[in-house]
Amino acid sequence: MPTLLVPPHHYLNDGYGIKSWLLTRDHKRIALLYLAAVTVFFFVGGAFAVLIRLDLATPAGDLVSDETYNKLFTMHGVMMVFFFLIPAIPSVLGNFLVPIMIGAKDLAFPKLNLASWYIYMLGGTFTLYALVTGGVDTGWTFYAPFSTVSSTTNVIPTALGIFITGFSSILTGLNFIVTIHRMRAPGMTWFRLPLFIWSTYATSLINVLGTPVIAITILLVAAERLFQFGFFNPAVGGDPVLFQHLFWFYSHPAVYIMVLPAMGVISELVAAGCRKPIFGYPFVAFASLAIAVLGFLVWGHHMFVAGESVYAALIFSVLSFLVALPSAIKVFNWTATMYKGAVSWETPMLYAYGFIGLFTIGGLTGLFLAALAVDVHVTDTYFVVAHFHYIMVGGTIMGYLGGLHYWWPKISGRRYNESLAKFSALIIFIGFNLTFFPQFVLGYLGMPRRYHAYPEEFQVLNVLSSAGASILGVGYLIPMLYLMWSLRYGPVAGSNPWGAVGLEWTITSPPPTENFAETPIVTWTAYEYPARVETHVA
Amino acid sequence: MSPDGAITAGAHDIDPVHRVADDLDEVRHGALAHQFDNLEQQREAATLGMWAFLVTEVLFFGVLFAVYGLYRMWYPEAFTAASHELHLWLGTVNTAVLITSSLTMALAVHAAQTGERRQLLTFLVLTMILGAAFLGIKGYEYYSGFVENHLPGPRFQFEAEHFQHAQIFFSLYFIMTGLHAVHMIIGLAVMAVMLWLSWRGTISPEYYNPIEISGLYWHFVDIVWIFLFPLLYLIGRHA
Fold this sequence. Notes:
The complex is a heterodimer.
Chain A (H helix, E strand, L loop, with lengths): L17 H5 L4 H29 L10 H36 L8 H23 L13 H5 L4 H28 L12 H33 L12 H35 L6 H14 L15 H29 L8 H24 L1 H7 L3 H31 L5 H28 L13 H31 L43 H5 L1
Helix pairs in contact in A: 2-3, 2-4, 2-15, 3-6, 3-7, 3-8, 3-13, 4-6, 6-7, 7-8, 7-9, 8-10, 8-11, 8-13, 9-10, 10-11, 11-13, 11-14, 13-14, 14-15
Chain B lengths: L38 H36 L1 H8 L4 H27 L2 H31 L15 H38 L8 H25 L6
């Protein structure tokens, strides 16, 4: 086997110093700027989660006061949803991969891409400022009139932070849409695109169509506090349920902003890990678009107990069941791809297995919640908390970590320690289930979410959950350490360490600044395993 | 599809936009950014980007129109009474000013296309003057609204019968027209950049896309006003 060498010129050594990073227009460097930022926000949000779980280890909630507790779960939600889950995969992996996967030199608007990062950082700074100067206690949902009239905490700076960050999502989505439409290499037709591109495209559509709605809604909350407008205040004829409609019109599709990119990652991992084309490619591709479209029609299922009419609730219930179809299509097609495939047990694939199992549980419990009668029983209980953590942590973060491990050799040019990586993937899987499975039971038994104290009979399940959370926390720390270690000491990866197909594996690792010396001409479909592997490695 | 491994792609496989750039043979246009193969691709990308942005804007204003629709349905009398407090003539004049600015904008795009630099500069300046006039009149309306205590909050005054619901109308009025005014200010800033680009001679018949897509934005902001004007100023005026 020939010795692998790091190429002499690549995007990481094309300029040194702080300016070459902060003023870069290279999509790959911007992806790394995002990687640093979302990692910080992830650990800030994670620290709040640790405090929540510590506090819930005892029924009386001995660690913090109830006001502090309200702030903790609010800040955990705000940080994780708006500053980690929504941007993570599109901004880090999407930024790095979209131009390379379609054979382009960069995104359509590189300056706008850098501007998006600065906007994101500005929004994050606002929110961090709100947190360190006292925090917010409204819940990440900002329900009115509590958020507009009653709360005495830092609602306005947090709202502004979220408003500003929204533009980062919008502009990134816009950039991806235009890039995917206009920058594809010759021969890269829509049905030759990797499925990651399809899901990024679907996500971008939601970003462009949904984000302005939350932006203006959250602006109305801030304006209502500042000028005493009465849009959501029943005391002057306003309607608080209207706020919930507007909030969930974005925030339900936002769930798909979080999970669709992860689904795209999983499609890539499954194809590469099984050495087979994805079963039913067009179905998986169109399922992404179907999820994006249907996702806009189901927001009412968050308001079954909020005074929605029976007929509206019925329709929203049926539509919510319908979203399960495209999601199920994906899960079935991934498993069908694995069937008789040469399934690998390398780290990225471990995360893919984890995703498929956990997402399925999260999705199926979503059907419980879409059913009107069951939903009334479990509304605002830990059942809901467990359900969405199975989707967001079990789905999105598993997909994100799987993707990060799969493309890390491409990003850094180095390999990480495989056994340590497998070990932490296992730890994360065990820790995750121990944290969140007991919460399904807790919720079903009637423990409400967002409560600081609880009856003693719930303690065993809560202690299990807190124990799981500490395992999960360790599981998240280990990859950060060995990935950073690999930057310097990891073995050289070579251009195609997995023997995978896809344009990103035809160029050096790390890639050159301009990605392709010559624009590639694509004459093959996305996953021609095993036929194309030879030509790629050569 | 071509045989596996062949370098040549069938003609039907290649999107005409994405002809391979012959960078070595072809001199790259000065305005062509590095990530694009040719000006045509750059123009199409920029135009699609602006349309996608305008879609975002439709949703942005759409929330406010939805909120407006709901409360107008619930409180029609209060909305009629409150609407009559607005200065109909100022609103009408402003509508005319803005529609005229759309005309001068369209003429500026035409001048850019045909390469008539003097006309381009003239029409851009006219567009900016009309936009500024709109903002001036709007500012006067805000001032009188403030003096007449129409600003919602502790100082708000209105006939007792509609006191609460008229506040919702005026909240919507200030938010919707305020957001529109912010868009006008951004539009003026964009026009200033366009004026500078045209002055410098960057704009040519081969490369007039910046003027064209700025025009798209300008027309969009005008269209928002075309909806705002009747919804806010003309409630119950037909009777």
